[in-house]
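Response to reviewer comment R2.3. The reviewers asked that we include at least one raw input/output pair. We reproduce the pair for GNAT family N-acetyltransferase here without editing.
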Amino acid sequence: MIKVMTENYSIIKETIGRAPTFVYSILDQVIEGAVYADNASFHSLLFQTDSGIYYVYGDSSSEALVSKLVTIFQESIEQSKRFTLFSYSDDWSVKIEQRLNGCIKKLERYTFSFDINAYNNREKRNSLDYDFIKINQQQIDHCLEFDNKYYEEYWGSTSNFLENGFGFCLHHGDKIISEAVSIFKSHQFAEIDIITDSNYRGKGLASFIAEKFIDYCLINDLQPCWDCDIQNQGSYHLGTKLGFSNPKKYTVFYKERLTL
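Raw output as returned:
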């Protein structure tokens, strides 16, 4: 295995097609990570964030890459580190299960395509009886869900998120009742993560704040991204209402409690 030099990241971006948003975050060097290849032709690739999230791409017959994955998995156990592996390929998913059989769990998720025409043609709610604020350090310090630990996990630091990411929240008085943030972001994509206080659900807050997130993406030439667990019918239906369509299934493998 070889570590891909950053000057080759642009070549990788042109060849991989659609991949998880964090992959582009690595390639655009928005978050810290690394890319490994089986050879200089980049037939098989492994993407790794510093927090222990991985993605495999290319030829699943690459024994070098499979061995690298096994080594990383064993090290994650020995060092009590996170291991979360994304696969968009049925061939890779079969290979991963074969090599890590009995040691790993799996979760199936959907990734959607964004239909801007469907989004623009939907009926929107222009206002709510709550204060709408862009997230800064003060909101993070008094957050509903997305605290400093969250940004350290996915962005490396809160300061990196505040500099390169974005998010919004709704206030009821001094209380934050809904949040939408970019869990990952690159120069082209921004993946949304949403939470709403259980006492305020059913009021359209998630839809409203997601629209604000999407509008911000469109103004800033970003493509909004929506992923969810296949069992999460609430997220599935909200995504489709917001113009996300053509769900495609992929697999996430993990060894411990999963947070996405």
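The first helix runs from residue 9 to 15. The chain is about 35% helix and 30% strand. Further pairs are available on request from the corresponding author.
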